[in-house]
Amino acid sequence: MSLDILYLVGYLLLLLIAWAFPIVRTILNPNKNQLITLSGAYLFLLADIKSDSTNKLLLGYTWKELNLALIILGVLLSIIGIISSSISNKKYLKLNELDTINNGLVDRIEILKEEYFKLCSNQIQEIFSEFFKTTEGNGRVSLYKHEGTHFRLLGRYANNPTYNKRGQEVYSDEEGFIAKGWHQDTFEIHDIPEWKKGGSSYKNYMKKNCTITDERLKKLTMRSCAFYIYRFNSIDADNPHGIIVFEKMKPSSINGNLISNIMTTHENQIKFLLKSMKSLF
Predict the structure, then answer these.
(1) pLDDT tens per residue, range 179-206
(2) Which residue in 182, 176, 278 sits closest to 239, CA to CA?
(3) How confident is residue 277, by pLDDT bands cut at 50, 70 and 90?
(4) Strands 56-58 and 61-62, how do they pair?
(5) What's the CA gap between 161 and 155, in Å, rounded?
(6) pTM for this prediction
(7) Strands of 184-261, DSSP E
(8) Residue 165, Cα to own-chain centre: how many angstroms?
(9) Would you place residue 116 in the very low, low, confident or very high pLDDT band (cuts 50, 70, 90)?
(10) Of all residues in the chain, what percent carry a pLDDT higher than 70?
(11) Contact at 8 Å (CB) between 256 and 220?
(12) Angle, helices 6-20/32-49, rounded to nearest 10 degrees
């Protein structure tokens, strides 16, 4: 066999060896179409350089005799490379278009979540206006939807802007006083020591009366001294919809009768807010 066959076999071996290296393969893999087109161009080059050569190339045929076959094969490879590149470009453009649409939808959903949070917060402000009148500017109400193993903050209002920050928006249903309210239907506690001198008394009291970590205590946006938690039960066998947390900085107890009276009129309205949020999360 003529050594001239190495012009073809050597090229293929070079590609195979290069492909065996992960780094090179990472570079070549996204450019396979260009590699096909390059192979076609290589055959054109051989057909041109060896067009008059009488050296044996393959199966007893010379370069000159196989010149037309090399040109045809080069054309086919070039056409395949061009078509493949065109298809890939269309897919790439389609993916970019879909990615743009997806990003737009994600942004839209985030806007809807933000608007829903404002809606829930406004409803809390209106429904529990009587509660806020009794707290002397240090009360807060937070509405949480239950999602499997955790709560998600849906709305919050405090009649003191200092305490109106969202803070952490997802909470474990096994931590804090909200876990006790979740387990017991309603839960209330008051006379919690005020946060002073690093809050050691406050933190010790909280750890003694509920499961809570130091990290969670550090993230509290309002270190309240009285809590009242109310659970929104489902009318069927499903888990309750969520809970609402009343808290205030003053250590005096929260008026549970006042909250019960408000719930008599507005509980279904709040349940509607909890159920309506399902599609956004």
Answers:
(1) 999 999 999 999 999 998 888 999 999 9
(2) 182
(3) low
(4) antiparallel
(5) 14
(6) 0.65
(7) 186-189, 226-232, 242-248
(8) 22
(9) confident
(10) 97
(11) no
(12) 160
Q: Which residues of 181-216 are buried (b: 16+ CB within 10 A; e: fewer)?
A: bbeeeebbbbebbebeeebeebbebbeeebebeeee
pLDDT of res. 57: 75
How far apart are the C-alpha atoms of 232 and 180, rounded to whole Å? 14
Q: Which is nearest to 121 in space by CA: 136, 101, 94, 140?
A: 140
User: Taking 80 as the threshold, does the pLDDT of residue 207 lie above it?
Assistant: yes
Whole-angstrom Cα distance, residue 126 to residue 118? Answer: 12
Burial 18-48 (b: 16+ CB within 10 A, else e): eeeeeeeeeeeeeeebebbbebbebbbebbe
Q: Are 33 and 90 in contact (CB under 8 A)?
A: no
Give residue 87's identity as a one-letter amino acid code: I
